[in-house]
Design a protein that fits this description.
ten-stranded mixed β-sheet; Structural Genomics Hypothetical 15.5 Kd Protein In mrcA-pckA Intergenic Region, Chain A; 7 helices; 3 domains; Pseudouridine synthase; 19 strands; alpha+beta; 383 residues; globular
Length: 383
């Protein structure tokens, strides 16, 4: 990449996925694990519908996280390139051209709770995933993931997650240490040989008898939300979504909340969460699925942020609940990039700093020949 005098003076080092996370990459503040901002190259190829647009218009319309003026400056300085070359702001893009965007990357923070290693074997690692941490690189997250943290702090690499937990969900996570072992687990999952168990704390007094929800799950990726659909007798209208089935058994209740064992037969996005909402007993701090349609049962629910502070696993020493969103004294921790739209803040713009743990926890995975279990979290006690 051609660099400006300003870039050279800053001694910019561009990172790639080949550069492994290190312990010094993390900054701990106010009970949260931050990632020291770093320079990174994002690569994409021009889609058919993008062809014919100027490079600046393309980024302005398709990547709305930054303003027009930023993209003009990024093209002029060479931080946005086409096929490895600097181009003018009037450049018209063509199908399949490679576009590189060199950015000062700020990852969202996660809670500082440890990733407890439950078992470590030559071919598999089993951990207790804390809420707020994504499993693997996705979206804005790369180093602030279970895979990244285990590599940085325990030298465990490569790791192949054989199942996924949503970012706000905690509990059992199985990671293979080779591609062949990962394939072994995935074949068992796809063959329906694996039994999965979760626990959830829901709003209301859940029924004593087992509840089975057999309702299609239709996930809207844009809204990050799922809905349920059931075909009506005599209605030939095709229903959307994927078939999904979950069994629910009440473990205990105090009349306000209930602890429920959840056994998903299938594995759809937000399946347990939306099936519990379908029953009228949503997870008691799940603000995405708590709604006016649950007949008042959610009145005792609380947001995931307050629930994390009130009933979450004990955090490490040094945790504080007065979580600051003010700009940090970045000279102590990272260098300011004059073109970065997030600097001087450590937290990227648009991140909801108060979104935390969900009362949903994976406790057990089993199949012929193996069983892995995870301890219950503190919020599982209704006393």
């Amino acid at each position: 990449m051609k660099r400006t005098r300003e870039d050279k003076a800053m001694e910019i080092v561009w990172q790639s996925p080949a550069i492994r996370p290190q312990p010094q990459d993390y900054i701990f503040r106010d009970g949260r694990r931050h990632v020291r901002p770093y320079y990174f190259e994002f690569i994409c190829h021009v889609k058919n519908r993008w062809a014919g647009k100027t490079i600046v218009d393309l980024f302005t319309h398709e990547f709305k996280g930054r303003p027009y003026d930023y993209y003009v400056s990024a093209v002029k300085s060479g931080r946005i390139q086409v096929d490895g070359e600097m181009v003018p702001v009037s450049h018209i893009v063509k199908t399949s051209q490679k576009i590189s965007h060199f950015v000062h990357r700020h990852e969202p923070p996660v809670m500082t709770w440890d990733i407890s290693i439950l078992q470590e074997k030559p071919d598999v690692v089993v951990v207790c995933k804390p809420a707020s941490v994504p499993v693997h690189p996705c979206g804005q997250y790369r180093k602030n993931t279970v895979v990244g943290i285990l590599e940085a702090e325990h030298g465990l690499a490569p790791l192949f997650p054989i199942h996924r937990l949503d970012r706000l969900v905690s509990g059992l996570l199985i990671l293979a240490r080779s591609a062949s072992k990962a394939d072994y687990f995935r074949q068992q999952i796809e063959g329906g040989m694996v039994q999965k168990q979760y626990i959830a704390r829901v709003a209301g007094a859940f029924p004593e008898q087992e509840q089975v929800v057999d309702a299609n799950v239709n996930h809207d990726a844009r809204e990050c939300r799922s809905t349920t659909e059931i075909s009506q007798s005599g209605d030939d209208t095709p229903i959307k979504g994927k078939t999904a089935c979950t069994k629910f058994t009440r473990l205990s209740t105090n009349g306000i909340h209930s602890l429920v064992l959840c056994e998903p037969v299938t594995g759809r996005t937000h399946q347990i969460r939306v099936h519990l909402q379908h029953l009228g007993y949503p997870i008691a701090n799940d603000m995405l699925y708590l709604s006016k349609h649950v007949n008042g049962r959610s009145s005792e629910g609380m947001g995931a942020d307050r629930a994390a502070a009130n009933s979450s696993p004990s955090p490490p020493s040094g945790f504080r609940e007065n979580l600051s969103t003010e700009p940090v004294d970045s000279d102590e921790d990272f260098s300011i990039d004059p073109m970065c739209t997030n600097c001087p803040n450590l937290v990227p713009k648009g991140y909801d700093v108060y979104e935390e743990a969900l009362w949903l926890h994976c406790v057990r995975y089993s199949a012929p020949g193996w069983t892995y279990e995870c301890p219950y979290p503190d919020w599982a006690s209704l006393s």
